[in-house]
Structure formats: structure tokens, C-alpha cells
TrEMBL record:
Organism: Fictibacillus nanhaiensis
Taxonomic lineage from the root: Bacteria, Bacillati, Bacillota, Bacilli, Bacillales
Pfam families, A to Z: Glycolipid_bind (PF06475)
Record protein name field: Glycolipid-binding domain-containing protein
InterPro entries: Glycolipid-bd_prot_put
Amino acid sequence: MSKQVMFWEKQETSGTEYLELTYVDHTLRAESTVLFIEEGVPQKVTYRVKFDPNWVVKDLYIKNHTLDKTLSLSSKEGGCWFDNNGVEIHSLRGAIDIDISCTPFTNSLPINRLTWRSGKPEVLQMVYVSANDLSFKKVKQVYTLIHDEETRTFHYSSRSFESPIIVDKNGFVIEYPELFKRKS
């Protein structure tokens, strides 16, 4: 077993994230606690994600402690998603990766899952989860590698939002300008 710990500060408002990523028996697991203020309300969100060795999400469990609300999703081959009762969520079909609104970590999933070529955009279908109310939907996001040296920079866009995302050599977010900055 190996473990990596990452810590981010939220730049836009007050907040932090502490994440442990473990590699055990050909499985990756992320466990995290995120504390932040949203519209003046303190929030605590915890999540667990289990992946296969290719960074494909298998299970997601997320809890908004402020609302005392949980969400549990699982994924099968080909981007089929299921709720905690085993019922398929057809509206998410085709999405491979997840994007949880309160964390930069989930931006690392497609970055680590795909092979990148500079300047070639990758259009992805993502399961977007709002940490504020645990609602979810499928959204289109586009990542384009624009700089690849010691660190890599991606241009990210989704709907009308665009931003660079800077990652380390292992594909983990160092900086998501004006939103998150990694401290360790």
C-alpha cells in the first residue's frame, strides 16, 4: 500500500481540503474532507471515490454534513451509472469521470486517465455533482493540453466558464487560478 496526502486552499472564498489517496491491490481510493463557506454558510463535505488502475471511477460516496445529506453512485463499463439501489441513471449514460464542485482533485481524473497531445482538445462527458445540494447532472467539459514541461497546463472549459489548470508531473492540480491552490 502507498499513500499520498494533498491539501488545497480555496482561493475564491475561505476553505480547505485534506485528501488521502491510497493505492491498494490495483485499486485507487480517495478520501477527503472539504471545509468551505458558501453564501455565508459554513459547509463540511466529505467524499470517497474508488477507481480502477486506469483512473475510471467505480464508486462515489459524498456527504454534505451541513445538510445531513448523502449521495452514492456507482459506475459500470461504458459509462453506465447506478444509484445506491442499483437502478441505472439513464441521464448519466456515457459519462466516465466525475467533477465535484468543491474540489480540484476530480479535475485530475481525466488528466490521469487519458493520453494527451499538446493542442488537441478532449471533449468529455462528466457527472457534475454540486457539493452544495448533492444534485448531479451530465455536463460537457473540454480539456486541452497547452504546456507540457515540468508542470503541465490545461485549458479547461465548460459552458461559459474557462480557466487554465496547472498540474504536477503526476497529474494532480497545483493551481486552479482564483479557485484552488495546493499547499502540499
